[in-house]
Predict the 3D structure of the following.
Amino acid sequence: MKKHILVVPGDGIGAEVTTVGKQVLEAIARKFGHEFTYDEALIGHVAIEATGSPLPGETLTKMRAADAILFGAVGHPKYDNDPTAKVRPEQGLLQMRKELGLYANLRPIKLFDELLDASSIKPEILRGADILFFRELTGDVYFGKRERLDEGNTAYDTMIYSKYEVERIVRKAFEAARTRNKRLCSVDKANVLESSRLWREVVQAIAPEYADVEVEHQFIDAAAMLLIKDPKRFDVVVTGNLFGDILTDEASQIAGSMGMLASASVGDNTGVYEPIHGSAHDITGKGVANPLASVLSVALMLDISFGLKAEAEAVVGAVDAVLKAGYRTRDIAGPTTQPEHVLGTDAMGQQ
Ligand code: GGG
C-alpha cells in the first residue's frame, strides 16, 4: 500500500515523540511491504516564530494533500503567562480541527497490565479498565463567541452546540459501542446548562436506533468521580469538547501516564493522530519524554485511516512486549522497575 503522511511535530517534546512515531511507521512499511512517503510542516509556536501564523497556509495545504497526519503537540509557556497575547499556538490546533472537519476525537484509555503499579489508583480498581472516549472537537466553548467587556474587567465565553454537531459525534460513539461491549455513557451538565439539555435530547432521540446499546447519562461532576472510583463501569463515553478535554486528562491516570494516551481526530476527510499530551516544555530537549503515546497514535492511524488491522496490532503488540520486558520511561516507572530499565525517548523507540 502507498500512503503519504504529513509529520507535524509542533512544539516542545512534539519533535522528539513524532521522530519515534515515524521510525515505527518506517519499521511497519519494511515489515509489511508498504510504501509510506513523508513531508513535514509547522504549527503552533514554531510556526508563529517562522511565519507569524500558528497555522500557516502552506501547512494547511500539505494537510489537505496528506492521507494522514502524525501530529506532536502545541504550546509554549510564554503565552501561558501572557493573557493579553493575541496570537497563540493553540489557535493553530483549533483552526486545524475546524478547517479539516475533525469533529470526532477518539481517545482510547487502555491499561497495559504491566503498568498496574505505575498508577496511584489501586490495582483491583484498575485491572481490566478499557474505555473509548469520543470527545466532540469542533464546537462548544472552544469555538463560541468570547469577549472582554467593561474595559477588560468582565469576560465571557459561549458554550454553544447545534443539533447536527451533537448528532454526528453521538452516532459515531453508538457505532463504536456496537463493536465493543454495547454500553454508552453520555456525559453532560444537563441539570444546569442549556447546551447540555440539547445534547441529552439528541442522545435520547438517537438511542432507539441503537436498541442493542445500553445508554446511561452522567453529569460531568459525577462522571469525573466515577472514573476514578470505578473505571470498569465505562465502555464508550461520548461528551463535548471541554468536558472531554478535562475527563481524558483525568482518565490518563488509569493508563498510568499522559505519556501513554494516543488519539485519533477524524471527520469528513483526513485523520490527525497525536498523543493527548501537550508540549511539556519542562522536559523538552532532555530526551526523557515517553514516546509510546505517539507510537500508539501510529497504531490508530494504521487501523482507522489505512484499514491496516494486522499492522496496527503489530504496533500495539510491540508496545506490550517492551513493557513486558520491563522497559519504562520515567513517567511510567513503578516501584518494581529496575533502574537500568528506565529509558529515554530514543532508547524506548529502539526497543
Ligand atoms: N497533542 C495535544 C496537544 O498539543 N495539546 C495541547 C492543547 O492545547 N490542547 C488543547 C485541546 O486539545 O483542545
Summary: The chain has a mean pLDDT of 95. The domain at 120-255 is CATH 3.40.718.10 (Isopropylmalate Dehydrogenase). The first helix runs from residue 14 to 32. The CA atoms of residues 190 and 196 lie 5 Å apart.
